[in-house]
Amino acid sequence: MLAAVDLGSNSFRLHVGRQDGDAIRIVKSERDPIRLGAGLDSNMCLTEEKMQAALASLARFRTILQAYPLEAVRVVATNTMRIAKNAATFLPLAEKAIGYPIEIISGEEEGRLIYMGVASVLGSSQERRLVIDIGGGSTEMILGQGVSIELVESFSIGTVGHSHTYFPDGYITEEAFDKAILAARSHFENDVPAYVARQWDGVYGSSGTIRAIADAIAKNALGDGKLTYQNMELLKARLIEFGHVSRISLLGMKPDRAAIIMGGLAVLMGALRELGVDSMMPIEAGLRMGVLSDLQLRATRRDRREQSVQDFRERFAINSERADRVAQIASTLYAQLKPASNAYERQLYWGGQLHELGMAVSHSGYHKHGAYMIENADLPGFTSGEQRLLSKLVLGQKGNLRKLNGVLADPDFSKAVLALRLAVMLMHSRIDVLADELRVRMKNKIELEIKSEWIRRHATLAYWIEKEQEWWSQVGVEFLMRD
Fold first, then answer.
1. Which residues form the Ppx/GppA phosphatase N-terminal domain (predicted)?
2. Cα gap 265→211, rounded to integer Å
3. Can you state the percent helix, strand and coil of the chain, rounding each to 5?
């Protein structure tokens, strides 16, 4: 069984799913309307009150998760955690409350996961799809065909912020609505032409906000009951008739959703007007289903991070022979070092494949250029934390080790760095390594058993080993070489 937890700007949500062939069947779903995005003060910090409410929700989710035999759990946080200035202070408390690591994902990664969720429900049809997801703090727009994504953008506009900006006192007027729609259009106008130029067969709305709008139209018999721009105008008029948030009374609309529905409706109408779309289909899928699908793919070794690495190799014309050789040697040496877990196994392999990435910029300091590119690039499937780790590995492939800023405190990561450095060194020395020809150990010190014949045949090897001994000594690790 798999679980996905989405710490959104409006609601915290949980899905527990059971794998049923290639599909995932949801067996448990929970929602807490935390409205984290409304808990940012004037300094863009989460208030104590909101943090306590969030921690209570996470503790409740932890109890729910403990009731299932889970193979994998992934907890992701979105826009509010991306922008909150005290997120780093709150994050350890939140992780302790739920009992799992929390990944603050980028807007682009959020969009990809949303599309994966929609594609998992719609199937592998080659239909060209435009997916729109309006969250509490951001809006994602994704264009793809079947399961493949072509364009993804995250816009910093969502239901919570937009409602507070244009309906701050709860009064609902036509003037406020028109200003809110116009402001929304201004967020989308620059990027929409790239979507319109590619066209699509169907438009889907995947967020709770869009489904709430669709429900309000259908259950309150507005127009023909479908999710069309014309019917959204009717819903807008009905909200204006209510005049104030406290007086909203619509069938099927929860009170917590009513408080921010104006902002969500304005954002959706602004987006559709810029896209030239008159109707769309609400769908019960999105970020959480995407997270579950991603976990399922990783479990079956169809990891899209692999494709991201391969795409990077091709885009920057990395020498495949050298890259594969370093990756294979590093993996062999890492196995010899006997890490406590396999947490860095794949990161190390990818680090070997991308170790010469920076040569696309310059042969001088290429490890630094490569590290920067990896940390800041758009790598589908990777979280920002995973990219930082991969960046550190590539940065640590050569030169002094003090630049790694404390990550060597993790013994397994230190072993991964050592394996990659030795692999790069041996590749540069043009030494073909077999698993039984080299021995390396790392506990309180590094012990390298290397054939003296290699030293005689490869003059630079002795030099580089001496440099390794010096660099490891600078971070307090003794490096011994034996024949």
1. 18-297
2. 11
3. 55, 15, 30
